Amino acid sequence: HKDSHDDDDDDNNNNIGEAKSSKDPMTAASTVTSPSSSPHKQNPATVVVLADLELLYNAIVMGNCAYLCLCLKKYEQARSLLEEALLLQQSVLDNEDHRAIRDTRSNLEFTNAFHM
Questions:
Q1: DSSP letter at 15?
Q2: Cα–Cα distances in Å, from 6 out to 3, 15, 22, 74?
Q3: CB contact at 8 A, 55 and 91
Q4: Which of 52, 72, 78, 88 could make an SS bond with 59 (beta carbons 3.0 to 4.6 A apart)?
């Protein structure tokens, strides 16, 4: 008996060190795998995708930290973290209407409502 998850694992193993093409880097994050060979043999396009994903991961962490700051009523720190997260997202994502950017803007507006 083979689950659909098994098929996904097989697909990922065939593309080690490569990101499947996706217009949404957040989706691509789940398809990037570590190469088993030397990092010097990595495709330059893969390195760029990995660097972009790293920036997006940082933006996610900043958003999570901002949420904690909100819970602690540290509104200025929350706003600062969200502003930085938004800049990272905008530097990577081409579409200003991307869900991640919209969500961060919404969280920033919410934070500003408490801080003002």
A1: T
A2: 5, 15, 21, 45
A3: yes
A4: 88
User: Do residues 31 and 15 touch, judged by C-beta distance below 8 A?
Assistant: yes
One digit per residue, the tens of pLDDT, for the chain of length 116 reads 544 444 444 444 433 333 334 444 444 443 344 444 445 566 777 777 888 999 999 999 999 999 999 999 999 999 999 999 999 999 999 888 999 999 999 999 999 997 76
Alpha-helical (H) ranges within the chain are: 4-14, 25-28, 44-71, 75-92, 99-115
Distance CA 105, CA 116 (A): 16
| Start-to-end C-alpha separation, the chain | 59
